[in-house]
TrEMBL record, chain A:
The chain crosses the membrane at residues 35-63, 83-101, 121-139, 151-172, 184-207, 227-249, 258-277, 297-317, 329-345, 365-387, 407-432, 457-479, 545-566. Cu cation binds at residues 230, 280-281. It comes from Allorhodopirellula solitaria. This is cytochrome-c oxidase. The lineage of its organism: Bacteria, Pseudomonadati, Planctomycetota, Planctomycetia, Pirellulales. GO terms for molecular function: cytochrome-c oxidase activity; heme binding; metal ion binding. Its EC number is 7.1.1.9.
From TrEMBL, chain B:
This is Cbb3-type cytochrome c oxidase subunit CcoP2. Residues 184-212 are annotated as: Disordered. The lineage of its organism: Bacteria, Pseudomonadati, Planctomycetota, Planctomycetia, Pirellulales. It comes from Allorhodopirellula solitaria. Keywords: Electron transport, Heme, Iron, Metal-binding, Transport. One of its GO terms (molecular function) is iron ion binding.
Length: 784, 212
């Protein structure tokens, strides 16, 4: 390697024998490998951080007491840091290392602008550092994998789309290789779609510099969030890694890719189908059923397109299996691609409603994503890094044995992580729904179901520790290899002909095997179409290709999004559902900041075992003032959708002080800081104004005298707390706002039109609301 | 890998490359694997029938309707034997002595009450339910009305729209049966000593067959 010199000359026409006709003036250039070194180093550093924080949150679940008094390291604040670090810092930098290394070589061109490359690098690291600071401080939008607040979001959009995307597209335009290889298609899809997802899921109304509320509410916010969340997995953790695979796997195996045709079919089907599948994260919720069904069906159709990538990876290794036995890089790839196949079979399976009914909210999902993240993303990145190391540091790897050890300890670590967590998911899921033969819950006490899986959580800590130690080995090996680098890197000069403006197809036109055969003209056309010549043309046109990918994802999006936003019946209004009071709004902001959604769902599904445990199932009309929606995705603690009025205010107070006071065996940490920090009544007004701006009705007093209105409600709650045996003056503290919010969650459905009337008749009221919701649901179905 | 030969073959398979070379990477011109293609087609073919089945307008197939049926079945399974109970003294006393139904009451208690009253009713944030003193209860049927309507300025929430009326009766019976266990709780005795619960009036045939 690295000896590519001017002898490497005219491959200009990508290997076809008539290259000369297509070749323009010869040009000399070199590749920018220092940017690859930077991104590779960042990948390793953030890989260490992401896995270390992951290990920390795993420990916090089994020993919740150790964060007590340090709210910055509570599970609910660190878990988003872990996911963001793993996705955007570790996987993100790995993607960039892969893109910068392979794009230059596949295009036979240096990156268009060295300056943009560096702005991209430092801008991205700045984003990560800002995330690492803001998330533990409780600055969050509380939408999974989109937690970062709006100033950081703007920075991400600029760096991603204009700096990275611009530099990439200009490199494509200035390429010296006529056709774009499949890896580049996947990079294009990644850049376009991630930008689209990121921007539209993060449209917010700012409340000051470090807070905001989304322009979407309730059901629609949930729809947008999981359109984003699911496709973040698709276009941040799948397509760029497939691009990575298509370049680095055949390189390492020194084998041709299994099938060009499969590349084309699975690329386009993946890009088109993936975008529809988001609603499968919202089965049995108040999302309209038609959307949920679409999400499921497109997920089922996604199975084979995903496996197309796996096949092209694994079958490329045919004839190279003897190398797999000896080359740790290929070992990483084989395990990585296998986990990709496993996760993409499991994904469609989990999206089937009846299976999802069981697995949703359980640890099964956690095991599923870790099979993908540790197995597929992690191992593909490690394989790439070990392959790159001798090439970018221009010396041999410091310790080959350590690479093998990393592989084995990593593989065992993944298994020891996921197997117990799958078991935990099955176990808790079963306990939640288990009913005895008299129709009653067998495990009515929620904490019992959590306690029974704690031993399995301990095994996860061990598995996580093994995986983490593998990453440490990678770090050490990379550092030592880097220390042995040459005093000056060799920068080979490469020459390749410039592309001529016009393309001349090499050689004679293709002969159809059906030429002269007595078949219908139609058959000849089909044969010619199947030969993929049409696609070959697209591969010469990067701008057109980009436009086509954009169209594929936008059209699919609009098919789902337009009905979700425009059909009124999708969210039937409920007359008794009213906006939150100023104090409740402030309390909701605390709920959001603390990241309560990381452990508590707020969405009761229409299933008997669930409504018996938590109360009446959630209705679409209940969420119209919920910005952001807080449905959650995992029940480490019980659902809170009907929490209002379920416990006394004093109960909440003492529960925040130390959950063990009232719930022995609870894994919730203490939130004593809410009991000691003063409530800032002056800071509530902007929250009310933002909610009012987005259509919630507030009185002039609410808007202009917000602090006084909030204080009055706080004093009422504080008086209740005193009456119930609690301390005095609780209205001074933050907890009182959170209690006000919690006492409000889910009670509007049962409210009378005029409050303060007798309790009689609320049940029938609820029944009739249910009828309305059901009737409207049917109408929506008919329309779709 | 400067493969510019017209027809490069590999490993003597009859596989042909497409002739494309990118930075040394070649591609075979293999067809789509048959099983792959057909499963893909099948997964697409599965969709229209599924859609029509669930969204074709046939009543009874939506999630809400399925739930209503399941809920009715569950209610029947739970309470068919006992019908709709009224929260009267007589009924509550009766179910104190029917073990299988008192167990149902204990499940309701475990689901909703333990976070304040303790796992065994010994009291925590809420009062001890196992001694002879009560705050808001004088007669046994008062237990049901406290559960239905709440008490102590909301310290005891109202449960009337969260629990089935039968559940209220059965959990009342369970709570009544805790009296006399005199467990030690974190709170001292609260309220006043009240007269014992009324005796079980054995009314003809439906006398409980067994026990305590």
């Amino acid at each position: 390697m690295a000896t590519v010199t001017s002898t490497d000359v005219p491959q200009g026409g990508s290997g076809d024998s008539h290259a000369a006709t297509d070749a323009g003036r010869m040009e000399q250039f070199s590749y920018d490998d220092s940017i690859v070194r930077m991104f590779a180093a960042a990948t390793i550093v953030w890989g260490l951080v992401a896995t270390f924080v992951g290990l920390t949150v795993a420990v916090l679940l089994v020993l919740p007491g150790i964060s007590s008094g340090l709210e910055w390291i509570n599970f609910a604040r660190l878990r988003p840091l872990h996911t963001n670090a793993a996705i955007f810092a570790f996987a993100g930098n790995a993607i960039f290392a892969a893109v910068y290394y392979s794009t230059q070589r596949l295009c036979k061109a240096r990156m268009w602008s060295d300056a943009l490359s560096r702005i991209h690098f430092w801008g991205w690291q700045l984003i990560i550092v800002l995330a690492a600071i803001t998330l533990p401080l409780g600055i969050t939008q509380s939408k999974e994998y989109a937690e970062l607040e709006w100033p950081i979001d703007i920075l991400i959009a600029v760096i991603w789309l204009f700096v990275f995307g611009g530099n990439f597209l200009m490199t494509l335009i200035h390429r010296r290789e006529r056709h774009m290889y499949v890896a580049l298609w996947f990079y294009i899809a990644t850049i376009v779609t991630v930008a689209l997802l990121h921007i539209f899921n993060n449209l917010v109304v700012p409340i000051g510099t470090w807070a905001s509320i989304p322009i979407y509410a309730g059901v629609q916010d949930a729809f947008m969030q999981w359109w984003y969340g699911h496709n973040a997995v698709a276009f941040f953790l799948t397509t760029p890694f497939l691009g990575l695979m298509y370049y680095f796997l055949p390189k390492a195996a020194e084998r041709p890719v299994f099938s060009y045709r499969l590349s084309i079919i699975h690329f386009w089907s993946l890009v088109f189908i993936y975008i529809w599948a988001g609603p499968h994260h919202l089965h049995f919720t108040s999302l309209p059923e038609w959307a949920s069904t679409l999400g499921m069906l497109f997920s089922v159709m996604l199975w084979m397109p995903s496996w197309g990538g796996m096949l092209n990876g694994l079958l490329t290794l045919r004839g190279a299996w003897h190398k797999v036995a000896t080359d740790p890089v290929l070992k990483f790839y084989v395990v990585g691609v296998t986990f990709y196949g496993m996760a993409t079979f499991e994904g469609p399976a989990l999206s089937v409603k009846s299976i999802n009914a069981f697995t949703h909210y359980t640890d099964w999902t956690i095991a599923h994503v870790h099979a993908g993240a540790l197995g597929w993303n992690g191992f593909m990145a490690f394989g790439m890094l070990y392959w790159l190391m001798p090439r970018i540091f221009q010396t041999k790897i410091w310790n080959e044995k350590l690479v093998s050890l990393h592989f084995w300890i990593g593989t065992l670590g993944i298994l020891l992580y996921i197997v117990p967590i799958y078991a935990a998911g099955l176990m808790q899921g079963w306990m939640w729904r288990a009913m005895d033969d008299t129709g009653h819950l067998m495990y009515p006490d929620f904490i019992e179901t959590t306690q029974s899986i704690v031993p399995l959580w301990w095994l996860r800590v061990v598995g996580g520790l093994m995986y983490f130690s593998g990453v440490v080995m990678l770090g050490v090996n990379a550092l030592m290899t880097w220390l042995h680098r040459p005093s000056e890197y060799e920068v080979p000069v490469i020459s390749a002909p410039r592309l001529s403006d016009e393309y001349h197809a090499p050689g004679k036109p293709r002969q159809s095997p059906l030429e002269g055969v007595a078949v219908l003209e139609m058959s000849k056309k089909i044969e010619s179409f199947a030969w993929m010549g049409w696609h070959r043309r697209w591969e010469r046109l990067p701008v057109k290709f980009t436009v086509l990918v954009t169209l594929a994802v936008i059209v699919a999006t609009l098919f789902e999004a337009i009905p979700a936003f425009l059909i009124r019946n999708n969210v039937p209004t409920i007359a008794t559902v009213k906006p939150y009071t100023p104090l409740e709004l402030a309390g909701r902001h605390i709920y959001v900041s603390e990241g309560c959604y990381n452990c508590h769902s707020q969405q009761i599904r229409p299933m008997v075992s669930e409504t018996k445990r938590y109360g009446e199932y959630s209705k679409p009309g209940e969420g119209i003032y919920d910005r952001p929606f807080q449905w959650g995705s995992r029940r480490i603690g019980p659902d809170l959708a009907r929490e209002g009025g379920k416990q006394s205010s004093f109960w909440h107070w003492t529960h925040f002080e130390n959950p063990e006071n009232v719930s022995p065996g609870s894994v919730m940490p203490s939130y004593v800081h809410l009991l000691t920090e003063d409530m800032k009544y002056d800071a509530i007004a902007p929250h009310v104004q933002a909610a009012a701006y987005l259509g919630a009705e507030y009185t002039d007093e609410d808007l202009n005298d917000t602090a006084a209105v909030a204080m009055r409600q706080a004093e009422r709650i504080a008086a209740e707390i005193v009456e119930q045996g609690g301390p005095a003056k609780t209205y001074e503290k933050q907890a009182v706002a959170l209690i006000a919010y919690l006492q409000r969650v889910g009670i509007d459905l049962f409210a009378e039109e005029t409050p303060e009337t007798a309790a009689e008749g609320t049940a029938s009221e609820a029944d009739s609301e249910e009828q309305t919701a059901m009737g409207a649901g049917d109408t929506a179905d008919d329309q779709s | 890998m400067n493969t510019t030969t017209p027809d490069p073959t590999h490993d003597a398979d009859d596989e042909h490359t497409t002739g494309h070379v990118y930075d040394g990477i070649e591609e075979f011109d293999n067809p789509l694997p048959g099983w792959w293609k057909w499963i893909f087609v099948a997964s697409i073919a599965f969709c229209p029938p599924y859609w029509i089945y669930y969204h074709g307008g046939t009543p009874g197939r939506s999630i809400e309707e399925t739930y209503s049926v399941a809920l009715a079945d569950n209610t029947r399974l739970q309470f068919e034997e006992i019908g709709e109970l009224q929260p009267t003294a007589e009924t509550i006393v009766k179910y104190m002595y029917e073990d299988s139904w008192r167990r149902v009451g204990s499940i309701v208690f475990q689901t909703h009450c333990v976070s304040c009253h303790g796992r065994d009713g010994e009291g925590k944030v809420g009062p001890n339910l196992t001694d002879d003193v009560y705050k808001n209860v004088t007669h046994i049927e008062d237990i049901a009305s406290v559960i239905n309507n709440g008490a102590a300025a909301g310290a005891m929430p109202k449960w009337s729209n969260r629990l089935h009326p039968n559940e209220v009766v059965l959990v009342s019976a369970y709570v009544a049966s805790l009296r006399g266990m005199d467990l030690d709780g974190p709170r001292g005795p609260e309220g006043k000593t009240i007269p014992p619960w009324p005796e079980l009036t054995v009314s003809d045939e439906d006398a409980p067959a067994d026990d305590s």
